[in-house]
Every structure is written in structure tokens, then in C-alpha cells.
Amino acid sequence: MLSTREAAERLGVALRTVQLWVESGVLPAWKTAGGHRRISRTAVERLIEERRNALAGDERAEPADAPSQFKVMVVEDEPQLLQLLIMVIKGWELPLEVSGARDGFDALLQMGRSCPDLLITDLNMPGMDGFKMIASLRAQGADFGAMDIVVVTALTEAEIAQRGGLPEGVRVFYKPVPYDHIEQLVRDRLGGLAAAA
User: Fold this and answer.
1) In which residue ranges of the chain is pLDDT below 70?
2) Which pTM does this prediction carry?
3) Taking a C-beta distance cutoff of 8 angstroms, is the pair 127, 12 a contact?
4) Residue 120's beta-bridge partner residues?
């Protein structure tokens, strides 16, 4: 058995993240007579394995000869804003495949099946936040190195720096969402791919 703090250390996430995963059912747990949560070591190991598979890809990943389309993933914990972002991006009438995720953990699980070319993410999210998700992706090196990462956040530059900053190459836009700038970035990337082909 593990305490929530021990589980957080084993998973490499904040204590609050483990508490949220327990509350949402991602991690099964029970309470002791004293009101403390206890988590099965097996459940933690299973979650670590799922995260590893999500980052490494699995047999459900697209075959190499599948038709390639520019993939965009949007990660945002506010459901209305997530739907709005997806709707606006689809409205650009570009050859895009757009998907959404509610937090970093959900995004990593989806990336195990299909890695996006462009990741648009919030930073402040329950569960695995944008900082931890981006750090996890960059730690994988070449596997996710070609992915463009764009952050759209309400945090200030100083607040981002206080939380450890972001890796080099991550573009940051501040809310309200600058749709025109993101569209131009996508069009530029598509133009570059067309020129290379």
C-alpha cells in the first residue's frame, strides 16, 4: 500500500494531482479508519505503464503507410473553450485532423495512438498540467522532437518563470486566445511541408 504522497513521488507528479486522480477514479484508493487515503502499489505501477505506453506509442499507432494529414491536438480543461478552439480550427478549412484532450494525462494517452504535429495547450489544468506534460514530452527526445508546441495561457511571463519556465522552442500566446496568430502559424507550417514535398 502507498500513501498519496508516496504515490505522487513514485509517479513524479504533485500530491494534488494524485488526489485529483483518486477523486476522478483514475487511481483506485480507499480511506483508512483515520481518514487517510491508501493506494494499491499495483494500481500505481499500472498507471506508470500506461503513461510509458502513451509516450512510447503502442500497436494501435497508425501504420506507416496510412495517409498523412497534419494533426493538431488541443489540450484545455474548460470544456466550452476546448470545443470553441476545435470548432474555430476546423473552420479554417485546412487539411487538418483536430483532436482534443482535457488534461496532460489524457493528451499523453492519445499521443500513444497518434502523435500530433502541433500541440496547443493550456498550462493551468487539474490532473497533469501543461508544465508536466511538456516536460514529459521533451524528456522523450527525438520521438516528440518534431512536434510544435504552442501554449495559450492566462499566466503572465513572470508566473511562468516562477513555475520553472518552459523548454526552448515552445511558443507562448496569452489569453484571450489569439486565433489569427495560431492560424498563421498553422498555415506557415503547412506551407513549409508543401514546399519540402
Assistant:
1) 20, 23-26, 51-68, 141-143, 197
2) 0.67
3) no
4) 74, 150
